[in-house]
Amino acid sequence: MPPGAEPAILSFSGIIPVNPLTGTIVNGFQDVPEPVGAAGATGEFSTDAKQGPILAQSWYVLESIRRTVASAGGQMSDVIKLVQYFRNLDHFPYYSRVRKLFYPDQPPVSTVVQVSEMLPDATVLIEVEATVWLPPSFNSEAPR
C-alpha cells in the first residue's frame, strides 16, 4: 500500500484535567477559556461551586482529546470509543451535557466506570480514554 493508504488506530489513555504546561488541575470555570467558562457559569455561587468543577474538567478533557486528534490529522467524528472514569457517577449527566458540545449528533460507543480515586489527587473528578480510527487518507494530501 502507498503511504497514507493504511488506516491508523490511535489510543489515548489517561486524559485528565491537568494543564501539562503548568501542572495545575482544572477546578472550575476560572480555569478554562473565557467563552467556555462564561457559557457554563450561572453566576450563582452554590450552583457554580457544585457543577463548575465537573463541567470545566469535562470540557478540558474533551478539548484535549479534540486537539490531540486534530494534531494527528483527525476530527472528533474519528473517535470510535470513549471510556469515562468518574469518582462519582452523579457527575455523568454534567459530563454528558458537555459531551454534546463535541458530539452534537451521536457520541461514540462509550463505557462509564466509577472508581474510588484518581491521580494526582482527589480534585480530579474524571479521566477519559479515547480510541480513534483514522481513515486511510488521514495522512495523505486528499481532503476528507
TrEMBL record:
A GO cellular component entry from the record: cytosol
InterPro entries noted in UniProt: RutC-like_sf, YjgF/YER057c/UK114
GO MF terms held by the record: deaminase activity
CDD domains registered for this protein in UniProt: YjgF_YER057c_UK114_family
Transmembrane segments: none
Family assignment from sequence similarity: Belongs to the RutC family.
Name this protein carries in UniProt: RidA family protein
